[in-house]
Specification:
The chain is mainly α. It is built from 17 helices and three strands. It has two domains: 331 residues, no CATH class; 57 residues, Alpha-Beta Plaits.
């Protein structure tokens, strides 16, 4: 038993070593993107029910480091600020499937073929879903208004006023703390699951049942559609299954459909964009994943099952760099998990401060630390805010000081969240 556990741990550690240099660099680049491409700026390009807006939404979505959870409030914000349904659907389809960090991590475990075809598939799925939505939406049905005044109080202006070291701090905070806080748990689950699959599940079993696309494609779709898994966390699971004998195309289906569809996204699209558009979205994701899955299988099998296409990035970095980045990444993930545990179980409930003016609001769709950070960063820009307390358990925000209550409600809603009255 001891030997089995050691071997499993070794498999998990090997996966972590392979991914960590790419992830650390990817998180840093993601922090830079967050600084130079604020989401409010994206909104100015996505209004108007036209094909160019859909293309722009997909282009913006591919590199952005937002997972299935983080993309929902951003999509809600864009929708409120003038993005049409086609652009919103396009953004929702292309964004969670990939990102700078996951593209690099995909290369680390699955090589150049997957690293190239995954963002291409994400871009295509955004175009496909957005175009179908635009076609089926009746012309003139939407009354779209874009509020350009928000640009004067948003992060675009704030980012320009930061000095060099403040910008570095913001890049590090977003890339290595907010993003890892958002995706770290899923990366850890993915690496552990991948390590267990690599060691425990027999190759013959996977090859027999999942080597055939007729079986593996539907199985991956059934598993992926309701599941919440981030674009990066899905990689080690797909890699382990492929290297055990699963069809590479089925692995791509898991990498596309897993991050793009889950119960939260399904609920959001149904409620905010309509049941018809939900079916369009699901049809587009399923169609895209299957089409590109077939393409990957054709390339792989026509090459004589050449694994150089899907397994080349793992030995590019020296062991000392892999080990250093693996320790750093593990430390950051466990720090975020510990921090969230403390906040969840030991933070006191929000209580009114009788010595100061308090505004307490309930935000029912504030579900994770990423949501809390987004709301806090938005609210603290309002004049008169002295202190902000957030309770995720109670879904409450308490603002101390003398800000305008309506302004607070407005900026929270513009961030993509609702206020319970």
């Amino acid at each position: 038993m001891k030997e089995i556990l050691i071997n499993i741990f070794q498999s998990i550690w090997n996966l972590l070593l392979a991914m960590s240099p790419y992830l650390i660099f990817g998180f840093f680049v993601s922090g830079i993107l967050n600084l130079v491409i604020p989401r409010e700026k994206i909104g100015t390009h996505l209004s108007g029910n036209k094909f160019s807006s859909i293309v722009k939404a997909s282009i913006f979505g591919v590199p952005l480091p937002l997972c299935s959870c983080g993309v929902i409030p951003v999509a809600a914000f864009l929708r409120k600020e003038g993005a049409d349904k086609g652009s919103t659907i396009s953004f929702l389809a292309s964004t969670p499937t990939t990102g700078i960090d996951s593209i690099l991590a995909t290369y680390s475990l699955l090589g150049p073929l997957f690293a190239i075809i995954r963002p291409v598939a994400a871009f295509f799925s955004g175009i496909f879903a957005g175009t179908l939505t635009m076609i089926f939406e009746k012309k003139g049905k939407e009354k779209i208004h874009f509020d350009n005044n928000i640009i004067n109080t948003n992060s675009t202006t704030l980012n320009k006023s930061l000095n060099f070291w403040d910008k570095i701090k913001k890049i590090i905070n977003y890339g290595f703390f907010e993003l890892i806080n958002d995706a770290g748990k899923w990366i850890l689950i993915g690496v552990i699951a991948g390590g267990i699959i690599t060691f425990v599940i027999p190759t013959d079993f996977i090859h027999q049942y999942l080597g055939n696309p007729i079986i593996s494609y539907p199985v991956m779709l059934i598993l992926s559609i309701p599941m919440y898994i981030c674009a990066t966390g899905s990689i080690p699971i797909a890699a382990a299954l492929i290297l055990k004998g699963m069809s590479p195309g089925a692995g791509l289906i898991f990498l596309i459909a897993g991050p793009a569809t889950n119960t939260a996204t399904i609920s959001f699209i149904a409620g905010k964009l309509g049941i018809k558009n939900l079916f369009i979205y699901l049809f587009s994701i399923i169609s895209t994943s299957v089409i590109f899955g077939i393409i990957v299988d054709q390339v792989f099998y026509s090459s004589g099952e050449n694994f150089n296409f899907i397994n080349t990035g793992m030995s590019m970095f020296p062991l000392w760099l892999q080990t250093t980045t693996a320790i750093l990444l593990t430390g950051l993930i466990f720090y975020s998990l510990f921090n969230n545990f403390v906040k969840k179980h030991f933070n006191k409930s929000i209580q009114p401060n009788n010595n100061k003016m308090n505004i307490i609001l309930k935000i029912p769709n504030m579900t994770c630390q990423h949501c809390a950070n987004t709301i806090q960063n938005a609210v603290k820009t309002i004049p008169g805010v002295e202190k902000i307390n957030i309770s995720l358990n109670e879904k409450l925000i308490q603002i101390e000081g003398e800000p305008d209550r309506d302004e607070i409600i407005s900026i929270i809603q513009k961030s993509g969240y609702s206020i319970e009255k």
